[in-house]
Specification:
Keywords: Cell membrane, Membrane, Transmembrane, Transmembrane helix, Transport. 78% of the residues lie in helices and 0% in strands. The protein has 18 helices and no strands. α8 runs antiparallel to α9 and α8 packs parallel to α16.
C-alpha cells in the first residue's frame, strides 16, 4: 500500500468503528420500550438496559486509553471491534433482561476500546497538513450516525423486532474487523514506563455506580429505601477517598493540578453541565411520543431528528467563527441557544398541537450544542501543554460521558418519582401503555419538571462558561 493512501484506508476502518459505537446508543433510545415490553421489565431494569452500557463505557475510556498508550493501538482497536460484534449478537439472544444488562456492560468494554483509539489512530496516520480533514470526516461520520440512528432503530424494531437493533451491529463489526486486520499497521506503545491507575478507576466505578443506583431507585422505591441510602453513602465516601488517593498516585487517573488553571477548569465544568443538561433529551422525547401518542418506534425516531440536525448545523456555523471570536463568547452563545430550546420544551411539552414547538426546541438544543462543543473543546486543548493534551482530552471525554449517564438516570428519576405506582412501568411500555387522559396529565407534569431541572443545569453551564478568563483565546479550527 502506498504511503499516501494509508491515512485514508485507516480512516475507512475507524469510520466503521465510529458508525458501530454511535449507532448502538441512538438506536436503542428509540427501541427501549419494545425491549422492556418483551422482557416484562420493571422501571429499574429498563433504566439499567441503558445505564449499564453508559456507566462501564465512561470509566473504561480512560483505562483503555492508558493501556493503548502502553501496548499499542492497533491490537486494542481490533479487540474492541471483535468483542463488540460478538456481544451484540449475544444481546439479541439474551434469555432475560438481567442477562441483557450484563451483556450491555460487556458490550461497553468493546465500545470504550473503539472510542478510545479512533482519534489517536487518525492523528498518528495523517500528516499535519491533512490531519484537520481526517478529523473532520471522523466527526462527520459520528454526526451522521447520530442523525440516522433513531430512524434506523425505529425501522428495525417496527419491521423486524427489537433483536435486530443489536444484530444490525454484527455485519458492520465483521466487515470492520476483517478490513482492519488487513489495513491497520502495528504501532508500538509510547508509554512503556507508565502504569494504569487501577485503584482510581475502581473507586470511580463504584462511586459513580452508587450514585446512579441511588438515582434509578430513588424515583421508584423512594429516597428512604436501603439501596438509595447505601448508594448515596458509597458515592460520598468514595468521592472523598478518590481525591485523597489521586493526590498521592504517581500516575493518577485525573491530574488535578490541571484544574488550577481557571480557563481549563471552567471549560471542563461547562462540558459536564452541558452534557448533564441535554444528553437525555432525545431519550425522553422518544419515550414521550411512544407512550402518550402511541406512536410506533419509527415515527418516534423521526420526531427526535431535529437534535442531530441542529448539531450538524451548529458545527458548520461555528467553524468559520472560531478564528474571529473567543471560545468564551462562542461557547456561552451556544449554551444560550440550548437554554431557549429547553425553555420551549418545558413550556410546550404535552400541549395540543405542540409538535412544531417541540421540534423547534430540539433544533435549538442541537444547534446550541454544536456551537458550544468545538470552541469549548479547543479551549481545553489549548490551555494545557502539548505533551498533556492526550490526558486532557481523556478527562474531557470522561466528564462528557459522566454527564450523559447521570443525565439519563436523573431525568428518568424525576419523571418516574412524580408518577403513581401503576404508571412507573407504563413509561417504558411504549404504544402498549394505553394510558388515560388523567395519566397523561401526570406524565406531562413529570416531563415539565425534568425539563425545568435541565433548564437550570443549562444556566449553570452558561455561568461557568462565562467565568473563564476574559482575554480572547487564539483558537485553531482543528485541534490535535
Amino acid at each position: 500500500m502506498k504511503e499516501k493512501y494509508y491515512p485514508w484506508m485507516l480512516l475507512s476502518v475507524t469510520s466503521l468503528g465510529v458508525l458501530l459505537s454511535t449507532l448502538n446508543l441512538s438506536t436503542l433510545n428509540v427501541a427501549l420500550p419494545e425491549v422492556a415490553t418483551h422482557f416484562h421489565a420493571n422501571e429499574l431494569a429498563s433504566n439499567w438496559i441503558l445505564l449499564s452500557y453508559m456507566l462501564v463505557n465512561t470509566i473504561f475510556i480512560l483505562v483503555f486509553g492508558k493501556i493503548a498508550d502502553i501496548f499499542g493501538r492497533r491490537g486494542m482497536y481490533l479487540i474492541g471491534l471483535l468483542e463488540f460484534t460478538i456481544v451484540s449478537f449475544l444481546c439479541g439472544i439474551a434469555p432475560n433482561v438481567w442477562v441483557l444488562i450484563v451483556l450491555r456492560a460487556l458490550q461497553a468494554l468493546g465500545g470504550a476500546l473503539i472510542i478510545t483509539n479512533t482519534t489517536p489512530l487518525i492523528t498518528d496516520a495523517f500528516p499535519a497538513k491533512k490531519l484537520g480533514t481526517g478529523l473532520s470526516i471522523n466527526v462527520l461520520v459520528a454526526s451522521m450516525s447520530q442523525l440516522i440512528g433513531p430512524v434506523v432503530g425505529g425501522f428495525l424494531v417496527s419491521h423486524f423486532g427489537w433483536r435486530w437493533v443489536f444484530w444490525f451491529n454484527v455485519p458492520v463489526g465483521i466487515i470492520g474487523f476483517i478490513w482492519g486486520m488487513f489495513t491497520l499497521r502495528a504501532v508500538p506503545g509510547e508509554a512503556k514506563g507508565e502504569k494504569v491507575d487501577w485503584t482510581g478507576n475502581v473507586i470511580t466505578f463504584l462511586g459513580l455506580g452508587g450514585l446512579i443506583l441511588a438515582m434509578s431507585e430513588g424515583g421508584t422505591a423512594g429516597w428512604g429505601s436501603l439501596p438509595v441510602i447505601i448508594g448515596l453513602i458509597l458515592f460520598v465516601v468514595l468521592a472523598f477517598i478518590f481525591f485523597v488517593v489521586e493526590k498521592h498516585t504517581r500516575f493518577p487517573m485525573i491530574d488535578f493540578t490541571l484544574f488550577y488553571d481557571r480557563p481549563y477548569a471552567m471549560a471542563n465544568l461547562a462540558t459536564f453541565f452541558n452534557s448533564l443538561a441535554r444528553s437525555s433529551v432525545m431519550l425522553l422525547i422518544a419515550l414521550f411520543y411512544q407512550v402518550v401518542d402511541s406512536e410506533d418506534p419509527f415515527i418516534a425516531g423521526l420526531k427526535v431528528l431535529p437534535i442531530t440536525i441542529g448539531m450538524m448545523i451548529g458545527s458548520l456555523i461555528v467553524g468559520a467563527l472560531t478564528v474571529k471570536y473567543s471560545a468564551r463568547l462562542l461557547s456561552t452563545a451556544g449554551l444560550f441557544g440550548t437554554c431557549i430550546g429547553m425553555l420551549l420544551l418545558t413550556w410546550k411539552i404535552g400541549d395540543q398541537d405542540s409538535l412544531i414547538w417541540i421540534m423547534v426546541g430540539q433544533l435549538l438544543i442541537g444547534i446550541g450544542t454544536g456551537v458550544f462543543q468545538t470552541p469549548n473543546t479547543q479551549s481545553i486543548m489549548l490551555t494545557v501543554p502539548h505533551e498533556r493534551r492526550g490526558l486532557a482530552n481523556g478527562i474531557r471525554s470522561m466528564l462528557q460521558n459522566m454527564g450523559a449517564v447521570i443525565s439519563t438516570a436523573l431525568s428518568l428519576m424525576i419523571v418516574t418519582s412524580l408518577l403513581p405506582p401503576h404508571l412507573k412501568s407504563a413509561l417504558y411500555a411504549g404504544a402498549g401503555a394505553h394510558i388515560s387522559a388523567g395519566d397523561t396529565h401526570l406524565i406531562v407534569i413529570g416531563y415539565r419538571t425534568a425539563f425545568l431541572v435541565m433548564l437550570f443545569l443549562t444556566l449553570l453551564a452558561i455561568a461557568v462558561s462565562f467565568l473563564r478568563n476574559t482575554k480572547k483565546e487564539k483558537l485553531v479550527k482543528h485541534p490535535v
